Amino acid sequence: MSDRNATSPRLRGVLEGIPSYKPGRPAAAGGPVSYKLSSNENPYPPLPGVLESVTAAAGSFNRYPDLACTALCEELAERFDVPVSHLATGTGSVGLAQQLVQATAGPGDEVLYAWRSFEAYPIITQISGATSVPIPLTGAGAGHLPAGGGGTEAHDLDAMADAITDRTRLVFVCTPNNPTGPAIPGADLRRFLDRVPGDVLVVLDEAYREFVRDERVVDGLDFYRDRPNVCVLRTFSKAYGLAGLRVGFAVAHEPVAAALRKTAVPFGVSQLAQEAAIASLRSEDALLERVEALVKERTRVGDELRAQGWTVPDSQANFVWLRLGARTADFARKAEAAGVMVRPFDGEGVRVSIGETAANDLFLQVAASFRKEL
Ligand SMILES: *Cc1c(COP(=O)(O)O)cnc(C)c1O
Description:
Layout: E1 35-36, H1 50-58, H2 70-80, E2 87-90, H3 92-104, E3 110-115, H4 120-128, E4 131-136, H5 157-162, E5 168-174, H6 186-195, E6 201-205, H7 220-225, E7 230-235, E8 248-251, H8 254-263, H9 271-281, H10 284-307, E9 319-323, H11 328-338, E10 340-341, E11 343-345, E12 349-353, H12 357-373
Parallel strand pairs: 1-10, 3-4, 3-5, 5-6, 6-7
Antiparallel strand pairs: 2-8, 7-8, 9-12, 11-12
Bound molecules: pyridoxal-5'-phosphate.
Pyridoxal-5'-phosphate binds near residues 92, 118, 207, 238 and 248.
């Protein structure tokens, strides 16, 4: 019933209690040195040719962008050997993730995901009115420092498959998992996918795919090819270093790709983002070189942390995870005081992006002195 005397518009009840997305805090201004290792961004400047193509496109931003991202989709189709009709672009892959939930799930439906995982999943699920079904990671301590061996902090795929019901509409599988780092071996993922009913959409969120070096891991695109219920999400934000331009893409069979085009905000992906993505795809060699350097740093940081006595899950992404339990906020404060911003998840742990060598060194120093106080 309408209420003429109401003092504010009526909002959907599902908005209440939606956790707000917490961006990684920026590096402190004015301090001696400060590094931002809180958002998994790429520390490198744009790839060769990218700045030039964006600058050229900037002269035309009085015009709307190409709605269909035609040139970008053609480039992607060739690069990943998929039909153009199986591609959809979006405002980052988080935009596509939200569209997929909108396209599949509403009130009464369930969206399944591992937890802790990407913090956008509960938010976009709740906005659509669907119910979140979070499944704890393997061996994850429930908010305390794990005793001894800690845990692998990976998806518990058997528990996830067991949790599928008639109401399940979508399953997010984040591999490598943000914020803990492990990627899912291909054999495990195949066994899981074989247990998922054909009418449930599985979204393989591969935002960090380029950083994976574990040879047991299989490219999500291999699973999509013969499975119409699998959608792969990729982004230009992490390895490609275009986080600020907002562009990602999905690969899925036609009904899902078409649903993504229907649920897209018109003209969401700017022409600057489209041109930058095309130029980035054409800079493959420089990209691989940088990714390799970050992977080397990841290995160095992980090894050094373990040598300091920390339990660190095997990260296949551009960050590492320290489970700190109740000491999380204290660690984040000390890191900030030392000039490194990390991403704390209160009561659980910190995620620390792999950045420039000096930044990683500073983080390792903080971790070493914190360890001595334990
Ligand atoms: C960063 C990230 C994304 C997407 O980022 P966009 O900038 O929106 O493309 C998606 N999934 C995970 C797990 C991420 O960490």
